[in-house]
Design goal:
The structure holds 2 protein chains of 2 kinds. By secondary structure, chain A is mainly alpha-helical. Chain A has helices at 2-48, 50-56, 59-62, 76-107, 110-125, 128-155, 170-194, 198-206, 211-222, 224-240, 243-248, 266-273, 280-317, and strands spanning 66-67, 72-73. In chain B, the strands form 2 sheets. An 8-stranded mixed β-sheet of chain B has the order 2-1-3-11-4-8-6-7. Chain B has a 3-stranded mixed β-sheet with strand order 5-9-10. In chain B, a hairpin with a 5-residue loop joins strand 9 (224-226) and strand 10. The chains are: A mainly alpha, B alpha/beta. Chains A and B meet through strand 1, helix 6 and helix 12 of A and helix 3, strand 7 and helix 9 of B.
């Protein structure tokens, strides 16, 4: 009798072990699969862009000529456009997104918070071409009639807001991108803020902190990693966004000091020109741009992660 | 019911599947053609992917499709890379028109090749430039900056337009050149006819170029262009087809020809063919027969669909020449 009980226990233990082992293998395979896909992607981009990598070398990164007729290609205006529009987008969407997330998690009544969060998540699901069309037909005229003239009138002494302006351009693209990244920042930041233990808030309040002091000095720092994660998610979307950007940025490969001027981004030029790119050099140049975008994303994310490490260390010393 | 089933299975058994890929500009009429032809011949099914002329040529070179389609004829270099000789079959014609948005101006403006080149080079900067007012007496052109709009993606439309400007202006030819996408000296780019049209509507005092079919369907204001004979011609389907009829006399046997800046009296100067690219040797006999049958139909009954979908039909002179070429497919 006793032996049979022992026996079933042993069997059960053994099955759980094989189950664990199986789960470990499967999840390991999935994780390896993602790494493999990334590596294949890089390898494919690397090998199919061999022609222009050999022809132009590092000059490709620093040249601002883009002439399909003479087959001279340089990536600089596209890199500039991608970085500047993404930066502008984050400048706008970080305060907006973080502010909304704090309101939704700390201040709003639960019912309103849930309803608004649902709406925000809907925003994240809208296809980018819809944002692009809305921007083309609604934002561009607004910028041309009000936004650009206002900026020129008030801040026109800065080179950032000089020169011709007709609604299309880097700033407009940045604004569209900020609208597209804000739902990610709100949604993920709110989750991070809600995950802060109740005791943290209660302790701060008990020590005599006001509600705002509790939020800003206790809750937000506690949720910092989650908030930064939401910003990375937004940044990734901004760097790779194609349709919405190409519809409003002006699609003009140039580097202009003015944010009101037209520009171009890496994703936009690939989408625009790849299908009708005759000639091996031309196609190779567009593929190399894809490679540049990949490395750009890695570098920017890497820098951001370094920043986190630096700030977290500073925090812990205190 | 039983007969429907029987037809269904018979169709399935003998189905001849043909794959093609290429140009986006004629995609609307190609889809219509393949659909109509399938209704007439249920055993033949032609799939067409409008992935762009460049992609069409690449896939045909690699041998992954049965035929290609392109808005520009193959260059000698591209033709030499094909494993078998490829025939060019012009299918329909398109015209490219200068469309503009100048507040207060509702009449048709007149352009010459020189003024168009000047505007798109950035040499003519204001609407009241003497070269523009000279051709448009009685029109009060404003003292405003011209905002240029062009296509941002590679397209047959851009090829046709830049090919024309290269023929007219030596400066254009040396500085910019003719291609599906070029390095534009000035202006804002829009993706597709719809974005160019949208951008023109958005920006006051702007000018751009769009396909005739698109301009007609969306009722855009567009100007007439002076042709090689010195007449200002407003583009319509007739003035486009007439160009091709004239060009048929001097057309090379392989149909690789640019028909911009045609010499006829009433010819509109910015026009182009679009081509189907068909290999001369098709190993599968069934496929070869099916493709030949389709080409024959496309040149006759198929042409009737053109005008309704925004394309100009082929003139009978070109149809006659192409019909002879079908025999070269083996």
């Amino acid at each position: 009798m006793a032996t049979t009980v022992l026996g079933t226990a042993a069997v059960r233990r053994r099955t759980t072990r094989t189950g664990d082992e199986l789960a470990r293998l499967i999840t390991w395979a999935f994780a390896a699969g993602i790494l493999l896909v990334t590596l294949l992607l890089v390898w494919q981009l690397w090998s199919t862009s061999a022609l222009t990598r050999h022809k132009f070398g590092f000059h490709f990164l620093f040249s601002s000529t883009w002439n399909p007729v003479t087959e001279e290609f340089g990536a600089l205006p596209f890199i500039y456009g991608t970085v500047v529009t993404s930066f502008l987008a984050l400048m706008i969407s970080i305060p907006l997104g973080l502010g909304s997330a704090i309101f939704l998690s700390e201040l709003a009544p639960a019912r309103i918070s849930n309803a608004l969060t649902f709406l925000v998540e809907l925003l994240a699901a809208i296809p980018s071409v819809i944002y692009g069309l809305l921007a083309l037909f609604a934002l561009v005229p607004l910028m041309r009639s009000y936004g650009d003239p206002l900026l020129k009138h008030t801040l026109g002494f800065l080179p950032l807001f000089k020169g011709p302006a007709f609604g299309f351009g880097v700033l407009t693209a940045g604004i569209v991108l900020s609208i597209m990244t804000v739902p990610f920042i709100i949604s993920v930041s709110r989750e991070a803020l809600l995950a802060v233990p109740r005791e943290q808030r209660e302790a701060a309040l008990a020590l005599g902190a006001t509600r705002w002091e509790t939020t800003w000095q206790v809750v937000v720092p506690y949720a910092k990693l989650g908030i930064l994660g939401s910003i990375f998610l937004g940044l990734a979307r901004a760097l790779g966004e194609t349709m919405a950007v190409t519809m409003v940025i002006g699609n003009d490969p140039k580097i202009s000091a003015s944010l009101l001027d037209t520009g171009y981004s890496i994703a936009a030029v690939i989408a625009n020109e790849f299908s009708e790119a005759p000639g091996a050099t031309y196609q190779s140049a567009l593929i190399e741009l894809g490679l540049v975008l990949f490395f750009l994303t890695v570098v920017i994310n890497g820098l951001a992660r370094l920043m986190i490490v630096a700030t977290t260390k500073k925090g812990s010393k205190r | 019911m039983a007969s429907v089933l029987a037809v269904g299975t018979a169709q399935f058994a003998a189905a001849q599947k043909i794959n093609g890929a290429g140009a986006t500009f004629p995609a609307i009429i190609y889809q219509k053609w393949f659909d109509e032809y399938h209704k007439l011949h249920p055993d033949i099914q032609i799939n067409y992917q409008s992935i762009g002329s460049g992609g069409g040529v690449a896939q045909l070179t690699a041998g992954t499709v049965d035929f290609g389609a392109s808005d520009y004829p193959l260059t000698d270099d591209q033709a030499s890379k094909m494993k078998v000789k490829v025939l060019h079959f012009p299918t329909v014609l398109g015209g490219v028109v200068p469309a503009y948005n100048i507040p207060g101006i509702t009449q048709d403006l007149k352009f010459t090749g020189e003024t168009l080149a000047g505007i798109f080079l950035g040499n003519i900067k204001k609407w009241n430039d003497p070269s523009l007012t000279k051709d448009n007496p009685g029109v009060k052109l404003p003292n405003e900056d011209i905002q240029v709009v062009h296509r941002s993606e590679g397209s047959g439309t851009t090829f046709c337009f830049t090919d024309y400007l290269s023929k007219i202006s030596p400066e254009w030819k040396s500085k910019v050149g003719a291609a599906g996408s070029v390095s534009w000296p000035v202006g804002t780019g829009g993706k597709g006819n719809e974005a160019v049209a949208g951008t023109i509507k958005q920006i006051p005092n702007s000018i751009g170029y769009v396909e005739l079919g698109y301009a007609v369907q969306t009722k855009m204001l567009y100007g007439s262009v002076r042709n090689a004979a010195g007449n200002f011609v407003k583009c319509d389907f007739n003035s486009v087809t007439e160009v091709a009829a004239g060009a048929a006399k001097t057309m090379p046997a392989d149909f690789r020809v640019s028909i911009t800046n045609a010499p006829e009296k009433n010819a509109y100067p910015i026009t182009t063919f679009t081509w189907l690219l068909v290999p001369t040797k098709i190993p599968d006999a069934g496929k070869a027969t099916a493709i030949k049958g389709f080409l024959q139909w496309m040149l006759t009954d198929g042409q009737k669909f053109a005008a309704g979908l925004g394309y100009a039909p082929l003139p009978k002179e070109v149809v006659a020449k192409e019909t002879k070429q079908i025999a070269e497919i083996k």
